[in-house]
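Attaching the record inline, Q. Sequence:
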Amino acid sequence: MSNKKLILNLLEGTNGKLVSTSVLLLRCTIGLLLFAAGSGKVLGWFGGYGMVATLKGYATMGISAPLATLSAYTEFIGGILIAVGLLTRPAAFAVMINMVVATIVSLPNGFMSPTGAQSPFVFLMIDIAILAAGPLTYSLDSLIFRKSGQSEYNIKLNKKTPL
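Structure, as predicted:
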């Protein structure tokens, strides 16, 4: 391979295993952070206040108890499902709706302020990337739904694989 092709391959090529690893890192990051936030809201873990205080807090924002409960459990259960890659796209879709609402509700506090919309917005963008890409190779979805003998979980990228 000529130097020019090698350089172009390094700049433009895609490696399926690295893409799967990247999505795994995104899934674990957002999944564990959502789980920690959700378990704080639901169970009072990780410095959270539990469900009673969560419902009171959401009520001050004008959010009903059923929607507040749904939101807290979406973070709690959805976070774990995304992290392990089980029912990844349905969980990511539910989290996406939750983060759209969280972003809109937080916007009156500003975007970059400590209680602003930047955190739910970043979660939303990561979640959309996971929703678009799917769980890929390193996930329970891949283990459960992969056809026998298939080494990759439906990942067909460029033929260029520099790494």
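The mean pLDDT is 89. The chain is about 65% helix and 0% strand.

More tomorrow.
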